[in-house]
Amino acid sequence: MNWTVTALTEFVQRLMSKGNPLKPSFLVENTSAQNNVTGDGTTYTVQFATTVFDQHGDFDGTSTFTAPVTGVYLFAFTVLMESLNGTSNLAYLVTSNKNFSLHRENGTEAAVGAYAMVGSIICGMDEGDTATVTVNEGGGSKTTDVSNGASHFSGALIS
Which sign, positive or negative, has the C-alpha torsion 49, 159, 95, 93? Predict the structure, then answer.
């Protein structure tokens, strides 16, 4: 590969601007309850306001990870739902290219009152693509909460 001075300078500046974009990874969690967000079929984007770590500053501090480089990413999440009253729960990893249904449960959640939705996936992302976690409970009323401190979202570039 032949590098021009301009291309090499841009590459070095990019590496130095926010840490190393070739090793992005993050872990975020919620620290306050998100009350009455679904139950009536409303799709809700889970908020993760506390950053445990963010190696490159690619998580926006609320809900969205933006891929700094094209590659294959591993994502994982846990969302604890409370005050359940519906008949079905869905959790998705929503990316710019595709929505991945990573958890589905029908008919048993309301009986237990709280339910942890857990999922993980490896997916391809292009530079600038985004990823969020959404939940949806249907068949009831809008009283379902995302529990305080028990929900996490993480991701890392793996190749």
Answer: negative
What is the rounded (10 degree) CA torsion for 94, 147, 44, 104? 60
CA distance 65 to 73: 11
Among candidates 92, 106, 100, 86, which has minimal Cα distance to 43?
A: 92
Contact (CB, 8 A) for 56 and 155:
no
Tell me the pLDDT tens digit for each residue of 100-157: 987 777 765 556 778 888 999 999 999 999 999 999 988 888 988 998 888 999 999 9
| Start-to-end CA span in the chain (Å) | 21
Q: Give the residue among 82, 88, 84, 92 at the shortest CA–CA distance from 134.
A: 92
Report the phi/psi class of residue 111: left, alpha or beta, with left for phi > 0 and alpha for psi in -120 to 50. Answer: alpha
For 70, residues 6+ apart whose C-beta sits below 8 A from its C-beta are: 124, 125, 126, 127
